Amino acid sequence: MTTLPLPLGTERLRLRLFTPDDLDDLYAYQRLPEVARHLFRPPLTRDQCAQSLDRRAAAPAWTEDGEALVLAVCPKDEDRVVGETVLKLESARARQVEIGWIFHPAHGGRGYATEAARATAGLAFGALGAHRLFARLDVLNTASARVCERLGLRREAHLVENDLDGERWASEYVYATLAREWAAREGGSGPDPLTNGLDLPSVP
User: Fold this and answer.
1) b/e string for 126-159 if b means 16 or more Cβ within 10 A?
2) pTM for the structure as a whole
3) Between residues 156 and 201, which one has the greater pLDDT?
4) Distant-in-sequence, close-in-space partners of 100: CB < 8 Å, separation ≥ 6
5) CA distance to 55, 63, 86, 116, 124, per residue, from 119 (Å)
C-alpha cells in the first residue's frame, strides 16, 4: 500500500480524509439538486451520506481497478468541509486515474475547485504514480470545464447523448493530461516514465 502525504496543504486549503464528524458538512452540499444535476444521479439523503463516510474514512490500497480516494476540502486552519475531490483508479495496469470534484455552491467563485484539483492531480502523478489523469463531465457543467482548462487538461472527447439523466439525454466531455505533460507545466522534473519510482503491483 502506498503511503500518502496527507493532509495536503495549499495556499488557502487543506485536503484530508473524511471523518464521521463531517456528516453535517457533507450532507449540506450533497443534498442540493444543483449539485446533483451534473452527477447523473439524485441528491443524496442524510443516511446515504452517513453510509458513504464509512468508505471515505480510509485511504484505499490503490491496487485494484475501481478503488477511489476521496478527500475532504477544508479552508486552511479550519475543519469545516466545503467540498471534496476524488481520484478513482480506472486501470491499475495502465495507471489511468479519473479525477473529480464537488463543492458547495456557497463557496463558488473563489477558485477553490481549481486550487484543490491541482493539489489532487499532483498527488495522482506523484505518490499514486498515475500515467494519465482524466476528467469526465456533463457538457452543461461549464464551471468544471473551466477548471479543467485552468489545469491545462486538453479536451479529448465529446460523447454525444451517451447517458440518460432522468428524461434528459446527457452528453459528456473528456479532459485529460499525461504525467510528463503535467510535470512540464508544473515545473517538476517529472516521474520515471515506467514506474514513477513506486513499487507498483504486478497485474497479469
Assistant:
1) bbbbbbbbbbbbbeebeebbebbeebebeeeeee
2) 0.89
3) 156
4) 85, 86, 88, 135, 136
5) 22, 21, 11, 5, 9
